[in-house]
Amino acid sequence: MIEWFTTKQASENLNISQVRVRQLISKHRDNKEFVKQKDTLKSKYYLVSNLFIQASRKNNIKFKKELINVGEPIYQEDGNILEAFEPEQYELFKKTLNEYNELKGRVNDLSKIEEEHQSHIESLKDQIKDLLAQRDYLQKSLDSKQAETTKLIDVINQRNFIEAKEKKMK
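RESULT FIELD:
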């Protein structure tokens, strides 16, 4: 059953000004289930239905004397964006935002860990380069010592040979 209210009653019911109710009426003037016009001898006035009030409550919220329709964002001059949500949509949005913040925190933590590991990897690479350089140095040193030892053995063998010849000659 449709009940009809004056603009004053509607403004009290919706907690908005009568001017704002008249603005809403002008948007829905063609919808006969929401608004009807009454004419008297002195003036004309509008009545709004309980359906109008329910729709205004369900699909709109009051913010800074502006009515925001659900799903229709308002872009403000200061760069802010206002958007109304139904309770279920808001809960889902809040849950998703919390999950996003949690995941963003995890990603930041993982990035820090990756940076630490990357610096550790770089440190290990430097150590490997140093160890390879030491290995090459030690290999060359060993080769040099081996060549020196081979020469010494040859010299000792020649000396022994010479000494043996000298002993035979004596």
